[in-house]
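> example.struct
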């Protein structure tokens, strides 16, 4: 996660249960005014390749 054009923070997401559903998550400190770029590298157990998903998140979504 990073402000657009800035170096980012890397964090391994941890497994957690929310409303009886298994998911993954984590907490990040958001510095600056945004917008923010969120990039996820997803690798399933046994998979040979990583899938990347990227999102641009405006400030009003996270505050």
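> example.seq
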């Amino acid at each position: 996660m990073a402000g657009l054009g800035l170096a980012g923070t890397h964090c391994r997401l941890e497994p957690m249960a929310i409303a009886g559903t298994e998911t993954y998550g984590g907490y990040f400190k958001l510095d600056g005014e945004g917008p923010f770029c969120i990039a996820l590298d997803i690798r399933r157990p046994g998979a040979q390749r990583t899938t990347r998903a990227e999102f641009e998140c405006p400030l009003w979504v996270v505050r």
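> remarks
The beta strands are 2-3, 14-18, 21-25, 36-42, 51-57.
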